[in-house]
Amino acid sequence: MAITSNSKLREIVADQRAVAIVNEFVPGFMDSADALGPCMGMRFSMLIKFPQAKIPAEAQKSLCEKLDALDA
């Protein structure tokens, strides 16, 4: 399955390439993926928009672009 910014969090966590990309933009975010258990079914692009994620808008855009290019 292709990984994109619209993949569910559980799919992102299962792909080491995607984990590396997320950690590049938001160091430590994926280290607490277990704490995000209730969010595992959420689309990643939606999850990062929540203020609790603390990801600036420009970083969100760049992160999504890089994830979308993974399997392009």
Notes on the protein architecture:
The protein has helices at about 10-15, 15-25, 45, 55-70. Helix 2 packs antiparallel against helix 4 (about 55-70). By secondary structure, it is mainly alpha-helical. It starts with 8 loop residues before the first helix and ends with a helix. The chain has one domain (about 10-70). The protein is about 45% helix and about 0% strand.
Poorly predicted ranges: none
Shape: globular
The oligomeric state is single chain
Q: Please give the alpha-carbon distance between the first and last residues.
A: 12 Å
Strand content: under 5%
Structural class call reads: mainly alpha
Largest sheet: none
What is the radius of gyration? Answer: 11 Å
Task: Give me the strand/helix succession.
Answer: HHHH
User: Count the helices. How many?
Assistant: 4
Number of strands: 0
Helical proportion? 40-55%
**What's the average pLDDT?**
90
Count of domain modules: 1
Summarize the structure.
The protein has 72 residues and is an all-alpha fold. The chain is built from four helices and no strands.
Please name the defining characteristics of this protein.
72 residues, 46% helix, mainly alpha
Task: Please specify the SSE layout and strand pairing.
Elements: H1 9-14, H2 16-25, H3 44-47, H4 57-69
